[in-house]
Structures are given as C-alpha cells and as structure tokens.
C-alpha cells in the first residue's frame, strides 16, 4: 500500500469538530468533558488528523481493524457488492451471505457449523444467551467479574467491569464469579497450576450454591480483552468444559475481540484445545468495515430449533455488504498469511520487546498476552503491586494514565488505555518495523509513567 500524502487542512478539521460537538452524542462519555480528535483519513496501521499529525494505531480502532484501514481488496469487494445487491432481507438465501457463513464455519473449532448473523458483538451475546436458555429451559447465566460482553441489556449485565453498574438491574439472571488471574489472584495462588485448580473449584462451588439445575450457561471471553488480556492458565478452559458437561450447562466462548487472528490463531480457543457449545464473534470477522457479528452454533444447540422456531432475528442479519466484507477479509487473511503474521509478531517482536521494556521501567508490573493481543499492567510499586491508578479511577485520580497517553500521542502512537493498563493491540498484519516503532514510542511514554512510581 503506497503511503498516503497528508495534506493539512485545519479549517476543515475545525468544521468537522464543530459539527460533531453540535450533534453527535458519544458513547461512554460525559458529553461536555470530551474533545474528540477529528480524523481526516486512515490507511494500514496509521491514521491522521486535519493538522497533519500521523498516528500509529496501537488500538486497531476498538481492537477490530485486524487487517488495518482501507485494505484495497476489501474496499473493492464492498463496492462490487453495492453495485450487485446492496441489501436484502435475511429470510432469503443470498450467495455472499452463504459464502461468509461457510468460510467462518470452516475455521471455527469442532462442530460449530451453523452461523447466526448479527450486527455486532453485543447482539451476538444476546442471542447466544437466548439460545442457551431456550435449549436448557433454565434461566441463570454465569460470567466473570473481569469481563466485557457488550452494552445491550443482557450483555451489559453479563459484563463484569464498572460499565455494568449504572445499568445493572440485578434481575437479569446473571451470577458473577472470579476467573483466574495469577498476578492479582483472588485465591492466594502462587503458581498457575494452583490458580487453575482453585479457580475451577470456586466455579464449581458457585454452581453448587446457585443450583446446577437453574444454570443455562457459563460465558467466558476465551482471552479477556478490555478487562486486561489475562491469558487463562493451562487446563482452565478444558476444566470449565468438563464442569459444563457434568451439569448439562451450555458453554459459551466470547471471541468478539480475541477471534479472527488476534491471538495468532483464527480463534483463541485453538490455543487451549477446547470446543464450546456456542461461540460469539464480530470485530475482526471483517475488520469492522461494515458492522457484522454472529453466533457459531454447535450441532446439539442447532438441533433444538430444527422443528421449533428460534424466536429471534434482526432486520439486517447477514447484510450483503457486511458479508461481502467478511468474505474478502477472510480471504485476504488466508492469502496474505495475516494470522501467521500475528503469531510471528507476538513471538519475535511484541512479546520480547514488551518484556524488555518491563525490565527497564519500574512502572510495569506485568506483561501478558499472545499474538497481537498484549497488556502492560502498570503499578506504583512492583513489590506491593499497587496499581498506578485506583480501580475505575477518573479525573485527577487517573492523571498518571492520562500523562502516559499524552506522551504516547506526542510520539506518534495512539495508545489503548484502560484503568491502570495500556494494551498493545495493533493490526494483525502490522509489520515488524511498525511494531518496533510502537515499542519505541511506548518506551518514551513509560518514562513518564515511571515518575509516578514509589
């Protein structure tokens, strides 16, 4: 891809910003306290503003531009589909919809061969839970505290992070539990083996006290995303699978963020040799070029609805433009070995590079991740592991992380920051040179974070 020539146009940028502030209501924000950057364009791993500032995007949008911005083959596929059949109702068989489903089913683990399309990840979670409840005739769903599953009604109640609190009705049939996280173990574990065993025992105890016959499903992010990229210890997901089988509970893996190459495999479940009953996806399925998500459904769950209508659907389910983008994206990822590149970058550049930064910066408490899915846990003190900022910090309490973010942007890096962490989540087709550029900018930014350590 030929580098784009940036032509600064501050006047146009001011007009875009003014219109945004006048009419756009932003998500997750106090509207009067935000100052959104006016974006002029994007290409590959970079985007730029109207003042000519260019940023290496270490957020992949919201961890979804797995093939970067403006990939010409995907853009062309959308344009071609728009000229052929721009939209059509979901009750019909449409070639590009069928092909997208086939390509996804080819890559999902086990017998997850039926695909229900949604417009995004939250709707995928909503429908996966509905399927589980209808399949089992039970109501409760268990999910982890450190998790994010979306902002629709059921998905936000399943979510474990503070974004749930304002919308938590305490009547959605959700029970939260502690998933493994050795660095901040709730089980006082000292090894991954201990953390795995104790977390599984905690989960089974929770099931026992809630009543196994009341629980429809357990939902987990295969590798939690926004909550901190805590890779589960060996044996944990397999243990959850065994527990679900023991009590006839539906096992749902949320791969909305971890799927489609992010961890160096098509789906993160492949790392752990586990097959869920339902798997949700979105984001990387077409790099967000047109909204698309879905549920991959096992033969057992699908059979429930062979003679019984499934009571759910969406007007834009399997939208032709979105499916055309998915077909093109999956083919690009296969042809250009994007998944293999993600694994290579993680093993040879990001993993070693981030660990080297941790050795030199006292603000880094832990490095964890795989593929192009990494988190740096930032602390005030490595011995006590006190977070650099308090849990759910805002305003002045969050100043150290704000300073880190400002320093990164000053050095041309757009960072992913959440609570006391910065995540390194570039496009799956990021080059070695781009990854090293990002590490250099992070190095400078972490020097600012170091000033807040004790």
Brief account:
The protein has 454 residues and is of the alpha/beta class.
Please state the CA-atom Rg, rounded to the nearest Å: 22 Å
- Please tally the β strands and state the result: 16
Output the strand order for the largest sheet: 4-10-9-8-7-5-6
Straight-line distance between termini = 45 Å
By secondary-structure content and strand pairing, the structural class works out as: alpha/beta
Instruction: Tell me, briefly, the overall form.
Output: globular
Helix content: 25-40%
The main β sheet shows up as: 7 strands, mixed
Give the helix tally.
14
Strand content: 15-25%
Low-confidence stretches: none
Average of the residue pLDDT scores: 97
The helix/strand series, from N terminus to C terminus, equals HEEEHHHEHEHEHEHEHEEHHHEEEHEEEH
Characterization of the model:
The protein has 454 residues and is an alpha/beta fold. It is built from 14 helices and 16 strands. It has a 7-stranded mixed sheet, with helices on both faces. Strands 11, 12, 13, 15 and 16 form a 5-stranded antiparallel sheet that branches. Strand 1 (39-43) and strand 2 (46-49) form a beta hairpin. Helix 4 crosses helix 11 (320-335).
């Amino acid at each position: 891809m030929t580098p784009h020539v940036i032509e600064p146009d501050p006047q146009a940028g001011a007009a875009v910003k003014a219109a945004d502030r006048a009419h756009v209501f932003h998500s997750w924000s106090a509207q009067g306290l935000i100052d959104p950057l006016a974006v002029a364009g994007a290409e590959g791993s970079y985007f730029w503003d109207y003042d000519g500032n260019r940023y290496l995007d270490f957020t992949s949008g919201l961890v979804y531009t797995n093939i970067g911005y403006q990939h010409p083959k995907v853009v062309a596929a959308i344009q071609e589909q728009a000229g052929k059949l721009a939209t059509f109702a979901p009750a019909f068989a449409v070639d590009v919809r069928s092909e997208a489903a086939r390509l996804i089913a080819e890559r999902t683990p086990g017998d997850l061969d039926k695909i229900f399309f949604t417009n995004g990840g939250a709707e995928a979670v909503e429908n996966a839970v509905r399927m589980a409840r209808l399949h089992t005739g039970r109501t409760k769903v268990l999910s982890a505290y450190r998790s994010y599953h979306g902002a629709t009604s059921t998905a936000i109640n399943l979510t474990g992070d503070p974004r749930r609190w304002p919308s938590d009705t305490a009547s959605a049939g959700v029970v939260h539990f502690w998933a493994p996280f050795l660095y901040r173990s709730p089980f006082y574990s000292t090894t991954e083996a201990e953390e795995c065993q104790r977390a599984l025992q905690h989960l089974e105890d929770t099931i026992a006290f809630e009543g196994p016959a009341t629980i429809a499903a357990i939902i987990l992010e295969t590798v939690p995303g926004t909550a901190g990229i805590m890779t589960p210890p060996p044996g944990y997901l397999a243990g959850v699978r065994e527990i679900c089988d023991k009590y006839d509970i539906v096992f749902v893996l949320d791969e909305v963020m971890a799927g489609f190459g992010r961890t160096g495999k098509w789906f993160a479940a492949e790392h752990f040799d586990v097959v869920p009953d339902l798997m949700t996806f979105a984001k990387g399925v077409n790099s967000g070029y047109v909204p698309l998500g879905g549920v991959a459904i096992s033969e057992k769950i699908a059979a429930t609805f062979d003679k019984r209508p499934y009571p759910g659907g969406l007007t834009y389910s399997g939208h032709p433009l979105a499916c055309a983008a998915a077909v093109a994206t999956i083919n690009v990822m296969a042809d250009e070995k994007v998944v293999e590149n993600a694994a290579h970058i993680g093993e040879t550049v990001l993993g070693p590079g981030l660990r080297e930064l941790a050795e030199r910066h006292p603000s880094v408490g832990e490095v964890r991740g795989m593929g192009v899915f990494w988190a740096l846990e930032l602390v005030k003190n490595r011995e006590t592991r006190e977070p650099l900022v308090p849990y759910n910090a805002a305003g002045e309490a969050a100043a150290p992380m704000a300073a880190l973010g400002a320093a990164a942007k000053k050095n041309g890096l757009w960072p992913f920051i959440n609570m006391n962490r910065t995540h390194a989540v570039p496009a799956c087709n990021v080059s070695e040179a781009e990854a090293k550029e990002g590490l250099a900018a992070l190095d400078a930014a972490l020097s600012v974070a170091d000033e807040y350590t004790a």
